[in-house]
Amino acid sequence: MSRNETKYGANDVLEANIVLHSALADTYDHDQPHYRPENKALVSRRLAHYAERIGNRVLVDLGCGTGFVIQLAIPKYELICGVDVTPAMVSRVDTSSGKVRILRANTEQIPLGSSVADVVTANSFLHHLYDVRPTLVEAYRILKKGGVFFSEEDPNFDFWKALKELRAGDSAILQREIEAVQKTEEFVEKAKGVCGDTVKMAEYQKMVLGGMRTDRLRDLFQDVGFSSVNIQHYWFLGQGPVLHGQSADAVQIIDDYLRSVLPLSSHLFKYIRVEAYK
User: Fold this and answer.
1) Percent of the chain at pLDDT exceeding 70
2) What value, to the nearest 5°, has the Cα angle with vertex 21 and ends 20 and 27?
3) Of 76, 95, 214, 278, which has the highest C-beta tally within 10 A?
4) What is the Cα 49 distance to its own chain's centre?
5) d(CA 267, CA 162)
């Protein structure tokens, strides 16, 4: 579905995000999958790597929400700026360290100078945007030369497309994933009282456009000016049950194999992450 085929506009998507995340704010830290210990450990290691390799003076977190990245970054960076438009979310960010500055702003117009950030992060955020480009332009502007932009937990178009075309049969894993793709708005409406149309608008790149295409995303980053762009597929179908029911070693074996046969296996990975250098 192209943008011209939808009835939504940029302001609709922005307002939908404020409505949805205001409703989610009270339980966000408990409900969202990126708060699971294994994911927090992975993100923490990556932030430490960038602090050591790129610099640890300033990290800017786009779509900071209640402070997932911020709290992990506090021990590693001198200043962390969180950017978000939803008051109910940022009011829950812990700023007691004295290292955190909250900017209530649209990520298309970030109230910071140019070339000030060592690292810009966007955890589970890009797919909430109507148009990704203006935010990437701003991220590029505020990054210093050699700085890095990092995003993850954005939906892989190939995965979503494949699930929309499948029936689960007897597979409990497939049934769960298909319902997550096809009935997200129903679940949120029932649990939080936010109408399904608003939920769809708030996850525009995923629920309206069907996910993020790696080739188009790479072209976009390069067109904005990033000199090096690495896009990685991750979290294969059923990874959670393998991790918790078997072992991390088993996960690594499967992950290594599926990566070895990319792009054929692209539709089996749920998310994409981006690492791009200025």
Assistant:
1) 97
2) 115
3) 278
4) 19
5) 6
* Across 58-62, 164-168, 249-253, least confident range: 164-168
Q: Of 34, 17, 36, 273, give the one whose Cα is nearest residue 154.
A: 273
Omega within 30 of 0 (cis) for the link into 134: no
162 alpha carbon, distance to own chain's centre: 20
* 161 burial level (CB within 10 Å; 0-12, 13-18, 19+): middle
**Half-sphere exposure (CA, 13 Å, Cβ side) for 183?**
9
Q: What's the token pair of residue 171? A: 């597979």
> What is d(CA 87, CA 194) in angstroms, rounded to the nearest whole number?
17
Phi-psi region of 24 (alpha: psi -120 to 50; beta: other; left: phi over 0): alpha
Condensed to tens digits (0 to 9), the pLDDT of residues 213-254 reads: 999 999 999 999 999 999 999 999 999 899 989 999 999 999
- Higher pLDDT: 28 or 261? It is 261
Tokens of 131: 């148009």
The yes-or-no verdict on residue 3 having pLDDT over 50 is: no
Side chain identity, residue 246: Q
Residue 129 has phi, psi (to 5 degrees) of -90, 145
- The amino acid at residue 3 is R
Architecture of the domain spanning 3-277: 3-Layer(aba) Sandwich (3.40)
Q: What are the domain boundaries of the chain? A: 3-277
Compute CA distances 62 → 41, 124, 135, whole Å: 20, 10, 9
Measure the CA–CA gap between 27 and 23, rounded to whole angstroms: 9
CB count within 10 Å of CB 1 equals 8
